[in-house]
Amino acid sequence: METFELLRSLLCEKASVSALITPRTRLEELGIDSIDLMEILLNFEEKMNLTFHDEAMLKLETVQDVLDLSQQISN
Questions:
Q1: Which of these, 10, 31, 41, 49, has the minimum number of CB atoms within 10 Å of its CB?
Q2: Which phi-psi region, left, alpha or beta, contains residue 31 (left: φ > 0; alpha: ψ -120 to 50)?
Q3: Is residue 58 scored above 80 in pLDDT?
Q4: How many CA atoms lie within 13 A of 38 on its CB side?
């Protein structure tokens, strides 16, 4: 599964707005609370075999930010 599609799938499970999620979507627009977002990010880390630093996770604002961070870590 493509990285974006995996992340979108995880976000959709909590947000129920699958058609509207694009890389430019702001995470706060999805109506996901911070606990759900952390759960989604931890699940994403596990599936992608990555580890995000807590400081970096606090700076994530858009879906693209998550994708960029995952690419930086995997390189």
A1: 49
A2: left
A3: yes
A4: 7
